[in-house]
Amino acid sequence: MREEEEMTNRSTRRHRTWLLLILVVALVAAACGGGDGGEAPATTAPTTAAPGSTEGTEPGGEAGRPEIPVLRLAGGTDWGYPSPFGFRRGPGYVRASFIFDTLVWKDPDGTIIPWLAESWEMSDDGTQWVFQLRDDVRWHDGTPFTAEDVVFTLEYTRENPAGLPLRAASTVESIEATGDHEVTFTLTDPYAAFLTNIAAAMQIIPRHIWEGVEDPRSMRTPEAVVGTGPYRLEEYNQEDGSYLYVANPDFFLGEPAVKRIEFLPVANELLALAEGEIDAGGPGVQAGVTEDLLARFREDPYRTLEAPGEWAMDLKFNMTKAPFDDVRFRQAVAYAIDRKDMVERLLLGQGVPGNPGWLSPANPWYNPNVPSYDRDVAKAAQLLDEMGLVDTDGDGVRELPDGTPLSYELPYASSDSARNGELLQTYLAEVGIEVRPVALDRGIRDDRASTGDYDMILVGHGGLGSDPDFMRLTFHSKSKSKSFIRPHGFVNEEFDKVAGMQLRQLDPEARRELVWRMQEIVAEQLPVIALYHPTRYWFYDSTVLDGWHYTSGGLAAGIPMALDKKLFVDGG
């Protein structure tokens, strides 16, 4: 009896220690904020096809799949209605991806594989892509899927941008159904990222449902979530951010292994996982994770998925205004900020300082040779002095030549850590720049970032492991992107030229030279300052579902999340 009691007591003490560790992380996360969850740009592009026929790797079939009755995932955040026009950001795209399919998908290593398309071929000059579509696909309402649906999708989304606007749709000159199950894209020029940024990202919608719909964003009927995908939406609750999906028994790759997916509202993902309320989840991107906690989630039955960060917290400048239009000011701000200190304080060391060249070090196109801007208060002061920005009244804040103090609001999303703004406030005060952090609803912050209603602004986003054409779409002076990530007023002729060249360069090594130069220009000019890249963590109960992974290059056009529908279809 005593031995049994002692064993019980030890188990209870271990459980209390476990919960205490999670509580500590919860407090850290509360102090640091949960993060935006990532924008849905792209995440590596090692899949540029060579001219000629491309037969993708088979995506797998139904034989030998396990049966997993339910998979419970951490929810609690509303990412919008999961139609291609109703969701927001990368997490919303992923939720819609369970319902809607793309022409191609990715294996965990980032290799492009067939999906709605069985095979594809690129012309010798890179300006034409022909896709052969599967002939056994049906929409959830039983209607056959055809090439006309693909043609309609591109034309419709050009007029009605999806929740995650299709990148580089302007590179497509025309699209034509050249057969019931064949579709041909003709491009204005060769486009190196066509497969990742268009074929793997454009969620195909049924023409027979959406034709005639004038306001797709407001469409919330059951027809709005009729797709070809492995899951059907059974329930969505905007108030608590919960989503419930059931397997599509008629899915063209066979009935999925996971029969039911539930995104459940939980107050703390790690505590919910430890208590058995969910089967998988991860801390927010800005929540520091202690080594003790990592050790706990490496004990059976748990597993920890860890990957370098493809997310960043950016400090953006509005370069239509002085003094932000002067590169010396932006460089002075960079020298004043201690990015290493931010990693230690905010992330508990679980991450790396932001890359001044913007792409994450996890990206295979990353240039490690750009200027680092290690903290140098004297250098920052020297640059500000050269601009004639001095403190004439001795109040600790420098002034413009007309006497206007360098004092600015610093908007940030209330879901992000307030510590970001507080630390920047401290760093910049040392060089005579005053910032006043202002918390805003994430949607309002995003709107202000998109419209240029700011001097400086903090924006968190993913996609920095993506195909580097993301840089062109973000920084090119003539880019049509209206993303909240895009800085206002940045014009650099050399960047525009080099970015245009890499767009059309199909040779990977020649393209790499151009992409490295793009990063050098961004690091020299600093239209944004990437503050840090948090390490990604995903914790899960391996007895429910194993085989979790972060897709190299990100899901679709580069979303750095572990929620790959192919895993749920295959069951591991």
Describe the structure.
With 572 residues, the protein is an alpha+beta fold. It folds into two domains: 340 residues, D-Maltodextrin-Binding Protein, domain 2; 223 residues, Dipeptide-binding Protein, domain 3 (Roll), CATH 3.10.105.10. Helices cover 30% and strands 19% of the residues. The chain has 16 helices and 20 strands. A five-stranded antiparallel sheet has the order 1-5-6-8-7, with helices on one face. β3 and β4 form a beta hairpin.
Quick summary:
This protein is α+β, with helices and mostly antiparallel strands and 572 residues long. It has 16 helices and 20 strands. The strands form 6 sheets. Strands 1-5-6-8-7 form a 5-stranded antiparallel beta sheet, covered by helices on one side.
Highlighted features:
572 residues, alpha+beta, D-Maltodextrin-Binding Protein, domain 2, Dipeptide-binding Protein, domain 3, 2 domains, five-stranded antiparallel beta sheet, four-stranded mixed beta sheet, 16 helices, 20 strands, disordered N terminus
The number of distinct structural domains comes to 2
What is the terminal-to-terminal distance?
Answer: 42 Å
Shape: globular
* Uncertain residue ranges: 1-17, 20-53
Topology:
Blueprint lengths: L1 H31 L19 E3 L16 E5 L13 H9 L6 E3 L5 E3 L2 E6 L5 E6 L13 H13 L12 E8 L2 E6 L6 H6 L7 H4 L20 E7 L4 E6 L12 E6 L3 H6 L5 E2 L9 H6 L5 E6 L4 E6 L9 H10 L2 H9 L3 E3 L23 H10 L20 E7 L4 H12 L4 E7 L1 H10 L4 E6 L7 H7 L17 H12 L3 H18 L2 E7 L1 E6 L23 H6 L2
Parallel strand pairs: 2-11, 16-17
Antiparallel strand pairs: 1-5, 3-4, 5-6, 6-8, 7-8, 9-10, 10-11, 12-20, 13-20, 14-18, 14-19, 15-19
Helix pairs in contact: 8-10, 13-14, 14-15
